[in-house]
């Protein structure tokens, strides 16, 4: 466990929140641009939620991600001291956007599944690193891990049920 310092790193905190919001916005833009026509015409899993659920879940997940990262940053007292968990965090954000890009933007469903697998592993690693600084920060990522697991089911079903997306 790392000891808490007294001064909160406000500049780094603001950058962390802005980077998280930007990742969420980019992922949302790519998703919205790829949905009409292509995604709407695919066979989807029986448990595929209606579109509005995604609009509720993703902002909540990004808020929990950011809160966890902020707890780590504040507990560490500086970005430098939290560079390992926050490095994983920022990598995870890029991979999250990458999944949207490959699934919705480029319509490369098999590659998106590989990216989703990498994302799942990054979330596990991030939780482990967050836990070194704050158990609460790690636990705040459990809903995201569950959602990424559910997304793997949805992605896998699209791949399986729609032969035209397998690239062959």
Mean pLDDT: 92
Major β-sheet annotation: none
Inertia-based shape:
elongated
- Multimerization state: single chain
Order of helices and strands: HHHHHH
Number of helices: 6
Query: Tally of extended strands?
Result: 0
Could you say which structural class the secondary elements and strand pairing correspond to? mainly alpha
Unreliable spans are: none
Straight-line distance between termini? 50 Å
Helicity range of the residues?
Answer: over 70%
Radius of gyration: 17 Å
Report on the architecture of this protein.
The protein is mainly α and 168 residues long. The chain contains six helices and no strands. It has helices at residues 10-34, 51-76, 83-105, 109-133, 135-139, 142-161. Helix 1 (10-34) runs antiparallel to helix 2 and helix 4 (109-133) packs antiparallel against helix 6 (142-161). The chain is elongated. The chain starts with 9 loop residues before the first helix and ends in a 7-residue tail after the last helix.
């Amino acid at each position: 466990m790392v000891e808490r310092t007294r001064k909160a790193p406000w500049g780094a905190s603001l950058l962390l929140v802005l980077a998280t919001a930007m990742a969420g916005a980019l992922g949302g833009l790519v998703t919205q641009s790829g949905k009409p026509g292509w995604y709407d015409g695919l066979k989807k899993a029986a448990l595929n939620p209606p579109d509005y659920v995604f609009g509720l879940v993703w902002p909540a997940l990004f808020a929990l991600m950011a809160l966890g990262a902020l707890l780590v940053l504040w507990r560490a007292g500086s970005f430098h001291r939290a560079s390992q968990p926050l490095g994983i965090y920022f990598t995870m954000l890029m991979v999250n956007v990458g999944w949207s890009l490959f699934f919705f933007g480029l319509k490369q469903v098999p590659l998106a599944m590989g990216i989703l697998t990498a994302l799942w592993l990054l979330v596990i690693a991030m939780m482990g690193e967050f836990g070194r600084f704050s158990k609460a920060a790690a636990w705040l990522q459990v809903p995201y891990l569950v959602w990424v697991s559910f997304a793997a089911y949805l992605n896998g079903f699209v791949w399986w049920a729609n032969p035209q997306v397998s690239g062959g």
